[in-house]
Design brief:
There is one protein chain. With 469 residues, the protein is of the alpha/beta class. The protein has helices spanning 5-18, 27-31, 62-69, 84-93, 97-100, 119-125, 142-145, 157-171, 209-213, 222-229, 240-270, 303-306, 332-339, 353-356, 422-438, 456-468; strands spanning 38-44, 72-78, 129-134, 150-152, 178-183, 277-283, 310-313, 322-328, 367-375, 378-387, 390-395, 400-404. The chain has an eight-stranded mixed sheet with strand order 4-3-5-1-6-7-2-8, sandwiched between helices. Strands 9-10-11-12 form a four-stranded antiparallel sheet, with helices on one face. It has one domain (5-365): Alkaline Phosphatase, subunit A (3-Layer(aba) Sandwich), CATH 3.40.720. Helices cover 33% and strands 16% of the residues. The protein has 16 helices and twelve strands. The longest helix has 31 residues, at 240-270. Strand 3, helix 7 and strand 4 (150-152) form a beta-alpha-beta unit.
């Protein structure tokens, strides 16, 4: 059953409940028809969609590349928001941050404890043994934390892999299917980069076009504030080698995550579980990676913030190796539940299982909505719509951005004030406002707060704490 945009908004629950379970039977399942597919969910932290060797050879990710070659790769995959806690709340519940009530990171302004049931609870009800090891960052509410037969909701990454491998070894012979979620911290450790001190190799590093052409006068002033008065201040005024060092340090952290992927996948194959396990590889949000002379993540909605890696491998699948479907991480819950042959819960996401299994009847999403609330006590709400090759960003107090993604893929020229593009801007704004109204998004009631320059060190320290949590 195809879904139009209006069908998705008005009757998501009815549609996803009617979607059929894919008929994908591997050799392992044929030998044990009572057993459903296992699920292995691999998630990095702060990895943008280009940070894979299969997309950009600058990055060294052989294990993720090999996994992508065996998977359906969603080339247009997005997070709901470029912040850890709210994005993770979306991927694990199927709801946008304003519905999960986690609009900001846990413990920050607008950030609370996740109170909704997660996919862990849904999979338990479907007969799965569930486990989550690694970063959680969603608070301590009993309902939000339920659903995991085994858990260790903190790092470091080597411990996460150790626990994941041990879980696979203990569950390899079970008749009951398992769902193992490994939530890694890297490349979030980019926050430890120190120009002139960190060990980096910059001989092969190029800086992006937008680094050279960034015009902070043409974009909302919060971009400049973030760099000069907030987390970016450590590198403002640095020379090209400092910025190149950032890119290599980030590349190193991506490689560390890839090494963990390799160890877990190797163990899966060693135990004979490869042909009976669905494997997801993704991230919670991106990193600016020096694009636009920006670092880390902050109050901006560029592609390197919003676009994420996303691939799903289903044994025996006849689906495409690549798809341009607009995946949003609220689709995680309905997609995995359908692939598991289980009831799909009501949520704001839609199942993409039919894409993975090669069905002709696939879901549609003609535009993507992004949300942003703030960092710690610095609140700067933004809404974004990506539609028909254009992106429009609306700030509560700081203006607008309009980018032609086809003609200007690095989003260098802000066309929001160009009268030649007033018509397309009005069309995008109208569609965005309709989504806000239909989804009870409180955007227009949110209040911007001023940046406290004294908070910069606290924010950076908190980011490092989150990385080691």
């Amino acid at each position: 059953m195809k879904q139009t945009r209006r069908t998705f908004i008005q009757s998501t629950s009815a549609v996803v409940g009617a979607l059929t379970v894919p008929k994908l039977i591997s050799e392992a399942q044929a030998a044990n028809p009572r057993k459903k597919y296992n699920i292995l969910y691999l998630c990095s932290d702060q990895q943008h969609w280009q940070a894979q060797g299969s997309v950009d050879p600058f990055f060294d990710t052989p294990h993720q590349d090999a996994l992508s070659a065996e998977s359906t790769v969603f080339e247009n995959a997005f997070c709901t928001t470029p912040q850890c806690s709210p994005s993770r709340s979306s991927m694990l519940t199927g709801f946008y941050p304003h519905r999960t009530e986690m609009m900001n990171n846990h413990g920050a302004s607008g950030g609370t404890d996740l109170k909704l049931p997660t996919i862990g609870s849904h999979l338990q009800e479907a007969g799965y043994t569930t486990a989550l090891f690694g970063k959680w960052h969603l608070g301590h509410n009993v309902d939000g934390n339920a659903g995991w037969d085994e858990e260790r909701k903190k790092g470091p990454d080597p411990k996460t892999t150790e626990l994941g491998v041990d879980f696979l070894e203990r569950r390899a012979e079970d008749d009951k299917p398992f769902a193992l979620f490994l939530m890694y911290l890297d490349p979030h450790d980019i926050y430890y980069y120190k120009p002139g001190e960190s060990k980096v190799k910059i001989d092969d590093v190029d800086l992006p076009e937008s680094w050279a052409k960034q015009d902070f006068e043409s974009v909302p002033p919060v971009h400049r504030e973030f760099m000069e008065l907030n987390q970016g201040s450590f590198i403002v005024g640095g020379d090209e080698d400092d910025w190149k060092g950032y890119r290599d340090f980030y590349r190193q952290k991506v490689k560390l995550y890839d090494d963990h992927v390799g160890r877990v996948v190797a163990k899966l194959k060693e135990l004979g579980l490869w042909e009976n396990t669905i494997i997801v590889n993704t991230s919670d949000h991106g990193d600016m990676d020096t694009f636009h002379r920006l670092v880390f993540k902050g109050p901006f909605m560029y592609e390197h913030m919003m676009r994420i890696p996303m691939s799903i491998r289903v044994p025996g699948s006849s689906g495409p190796k690549r798809t341009d479907y607009n995946w949003v991480n609220v689709d995680t819950v309905p997609t995995l539940m359908e692939l598991a042959g289980a009831k799909v819960p009501d949520c704001q996401g839609q199942s993409a299982a039919s894409i993975v299994n090669g069905s002709k009847d696939v879901p549609e999403r003609d535009y993507v909505i992004g949300q942003y609330y703030g960092k710690q006590t610095w609140v700067s709400p933004i809404r974004s719509i990506r539609w028909e090759g254009w992106k429009y960003n609306l700030y509560t107090d700081w203006g607008e951005e309009l980018y032609d993604l086809k003609g200007d893929p690095e989003e260098i020229e802000n066309l929001a004030k160009d009268p030649k593009h007033a018509k397309v801007k009005r069309r995008l704004r109208k569609r965005l406002d309709r989504w806000i109204k239909e989804n009870d998004d409180p955007f227009y009631s949110l209040t911007t707060t001023k940046l406290d320059p004294n908070e910069a060190k606290t924010i950076l320290s908190k980011s490092k704490q989150d990385a080691s949590a």
